[in-house]
Write a structure and sequence with these properties.
Layout: H1 13-21, E1 25-27, H2 30-39, H3 42-55, H4 59-82, H5 89-110, E2 116-118, H6 122-142, H7 147-154
Helix pairs in contact: 2-3, 2-5, 3-4, 3-5, 4-5
Length: 156
């Protein structure tokens, strides 16, 4: 009798990749969180991190991160406003510090490994720009923009 040996069939590569990818999810990485905090405010970076945390099941941690980012933004605004600092490099430095806290403390605390796929930020960027444009238009039509900006906008 002839021994019939058949090699086990290999799984196609795309099926193997799916099995390996089951543990990984798409998350916003550290850099978008830092950059949204820097260019918009730590609230936007906190929202991105909250989305990540909720996506993996840390709902309470997501809420805490969002509350931290809101409190940090308002505390910074009150502190700098009380000191009469409304522009320049100092508010940018405070925004960057908020982003670093979000990405280097909170992000590393809940995502110590790099077992995720980076999520595209285009949708979040569109929402952030829409929010800022809406705030700008509300300030423009209510007359609360600084006079220097109104002069520039009225020049044609």
């Amino acid at each position: 009798m002839e021994d019939q040996y058949t090699e086990p069939e290999e799984q196609p590569e795309d099926i193997q990749d799916e099995d390996e990818q089951e543990g990984a999810v798409e998350l916003y990485s550290k850099w978008p969180i830092r950059l949204f905090s820097l260019f918009f405010s730590p609230i936007f970076g906190g929202i991105l991190l909250m989305i990540n945390l909720r996506k993996v099941g840390y709902k309470q941690a997501g809420t805490r991160v969002l509350l931290f980012s809101i409190a940090y933004t308002f505390a910074t605004a009150i502190l700098l406003g009380g000191m009469g600092i409304t522009g320049g490099i100092i508010p940018i430095v405070f925004n960057l510090m908020g982003g670093v806290i979000l990405s280097d403390y909170y992000y590393k605390k809940y995502f110590p490994d790099d077992d995720y796929y980076p999520r595209p930020v285009w949708g979040a960027l569109a929402v952030a720009l829409l929010v800022y444009f809406s705030i700008f238009m509300a300030m423009y039509y209510s007359g609360t923009l600084p006079p220097e900006i109104i002069k520039v906008l009225n020049k044609k």
